[in-house]
Design goal:
five-stranded antiparallel beta sheet, mainly beta, 13% helix, Coagulation Factor XIII, Chain A, domain 1, 38% strand, 249 residues, 4 helices
């Protein structure tokens, strides 16, 4: 479950409280709002920082993740302990910190990464069985597997992940879809900001409809990325999706 807007605001406040001067070239100031927008046939949730900030779509195949061509630099990351020590006398802020961070420390293997993506599920009520992939094992093996969707069905993508140590801001899920070696689509989903906790977090995309018709049936190769505002590559993997006329065709 993603954070409610007040918690998103808290993260912005906590991460920028000690550094109020932002890059003058970016045209950004400190107050955060949220607004939906539409890119092609996909919904993308964009975080807009006080003023409408138009992101230029930049086609880049270096790491195959589209980024805004701007000079904006994210605020310096604060440790979990630093955030817990901030403004202890502010009752409302403490309330949100407790909701975001929990009431106690999270015990975790020190060698574990801060963000662990554990699995991806295609949620489809019409499917004869679960459509899920384990992302903790051999990712190379996923390239040889084929996941099936019946044409025209409605589905959603669910990402399961854990945050182990520090708050992470601006998480996003990106996937590029290829057919016969040519990229035919891209999707960018703003996942949000999350704090550490023992349980997994889940992110669910809006409802989408699988392609339909003889011309669009067949195998699609998908390259997926789970990244954040700092362009950290938390996980990259590839998989195949078959669009078929019938589930068991």
């Amino acid at each position: 479950m993603s954070l409610i807007p007040e918690m998103q605001w808290l993260v912005g406040v906590l991460l920028t409280r000690s550094s109020r001067t932002l890059d003058s070239h970016s045209g950004l100031v400190t107050h955060c709002t949220f607004a939906p927008c539409r890119l092609g046939l996909r919904h993308i949730g964009l975080i807009q920082v006080n003023v409408l900030y138009f992101m230029a779509d930049k086609e880049a195949d270096v790491h195959e993740i589209d980024e805004a061509d701007v000079n904006y630099q994210p605020p310096a990351q604060k440790s979990l302990q630093e955030i817990q020590e901030l403004d202890k006398d502010d009752e409302s802020l403490n309330k949100y910190k407790k909701a975001l961070l929990g009431s106690g420390p999270v015990e975790i293997d020190p060698s574990a990464p801060n963000v662990q993506v554990t699995r991806l599920t295609l949620v489809c009520n019409a499917a004869p069985g679960p459509i899920t992939m384990d992302l903790t094992g051999d990712l190379e093996a996923l390239k040889k597997e084929n996941f099936v969707l019946k044409e025209g069905v409605e589905y959603r993508v669910k990402i399961h992940f854990k945050v182990n140590k520090e708050i992470v801001s601006g998480l996003k899920y990106v996937h590029h879809t290829y057919r016969k070696g040519i990229r035919v689509d891209k999707d960018v989903y703003m996942v949000g900001s999350y704090g550490p906790r023992p349980e997994e977090h889940e992110f669910l995309t809006p409802v989408e409809e699988a392609p339909k018709g003889m011309l669009v049936r067949g195998c699609y190769h998908i390259k997926s990325y789970f990244t954040d505002d700092d362009k950290t590559d938390h996980l990259s993997w590839e998989w195949n999706l078959n669009i078929k006329k019938e589930w068991n065709e």
